[in-house]
Amino acid sequence: MIWGGLGMFVCEYIVAIIGVCKPDDRTATKAQISFICIYIFFFASTWGPAAWVVIGELFPLTIRSRAVGLSTASNWLWNCIIAVITPYMVDTDKGNLKSKVFFIWGSCCFFCLLYAIILIPETKGLTLEQVDRMLEETTPFTSGKWKPHSTFVADMGKAVHSDSDEKLSKTQSESV
């Protein structure tokens, strides 16, 4: 996800720089279109679907359904705001930013990247219950180093112990 955000940021700035340096060049316009397509690839393969995974995993079980609903509503609201204001930002008789608008979007990508690095915890390989416990014990920035204390099966009391498991655990505890 970090590489996707970085790729999106770089593509946005390249489009903006090309547009400022060569505003009416046909070859430059083709390069801009190419970098916009690369941006779409990065977004569609990382940030686009990852947002839905993150909101489905991060909230505590007790409020998850309401929080996902509010997150979805927020997503739609911001999409609507961006769709409404962008024409005013680029229109020649309004904001007249033209390609410079990509500096704004690229800066937004950069701040979203910082937000993700600092405030979105690493949940790879964890159950929802383990994510809840991790968030109680550590911060999002240091969550990548957190290891679960037990498995979901053991927490539910369904673990089956055999004689070899007991011998293994005794051997491990004696060697420590």
Summarize the model shown.
This protein has one domain (2-145): Up-down Bundle (Growth Hormone, Chain: A). It is 72% helix and 0% strand.
What can you tell me about this protein's structure?
It is a single chain. With 176 residues, this protein is mainly α. The protein has a single domain (2-145), classed as MFS general substrate transporter like domains (Growth Hormone, Chain: A, Up-down Bundle). Helices cover 72% and strands 0% of the residues. The chain has 7 helices and no strands. Helix 1 (2-21) packs antiparallel against helix 2, helix 1 (2-21) packs antiparallel against helix 4 (101-119) and helix 2 (26-58) packs antiparallel against helix 3 (64-90). The mean pLDDT is 89.
Percent of residues in helices:
over 70%
- What share of the residues does DSSP label as strand, in percent? under 5%
Biggest β-sheet description: none
Low-confidence stretches: none
Query: Helical stretch count?
Result: 7
The CATH architecture name reads Up-down Bundle
Indicate the CATH topology. Growth Hormone, Chain: A
Q: N- to C-terminal separation?
A: 38 Å
Q: CATH superfamily, called what? A: MFS general substrate transporter like domains
- Rg result: 23 Å
Per CATH, the class reads Mainly Alpha
Furnish the topology, listing elements before pairings.
Blueprint: H1 2-21, H2 26-58, H3 64-90, H4 101-119, H5 128-137, H6 152-155, H7 163-175
Helix pairs in contact: 1-2, 1-4, 2-3
